[in-house]
Design a protein that fits this description.
The protein is an all-alpha fold. The protein contains 2 helices and no strands. It has one domain. The chain is flat and about 40 Å long.
Length: 72
């Protein structure tokens, strides 16, 4: 995944640029792994679940109910 495809959050989180880069790296790694094997596909699912949990936690912090709807 290209880093520039993710929103810039430097003004929101002090380490926002590092978080953005690490996120892009993690997504790239599972994209590659998912194309190679079933275990790579499973890893992509686990990363997806991680980001859904993070989105729900951020939603609660922003005053939401913590139930972010995921659409494909």
């Amino acid at each position: 995944m290209l880093l520039t495809k993710l929103p810039d959050i430097q003004k929101v989180v002090s380490d926002g640029d590092d978080l953005r880069a690490d996120t892009a790296d993690a997504i790239t790694a599972v994209e590659i792994a998912a194309k190679r094997s079933a275990s790579g596909l499973a890893a992509a699912g686990k990363l997806r679940d991680f980001f859904i949990a993070a989105a729900n936690a951020a939603d609660r912090a922003a005053g939401g109910d913590g139930d972010v709807t995921v659409t494909a």
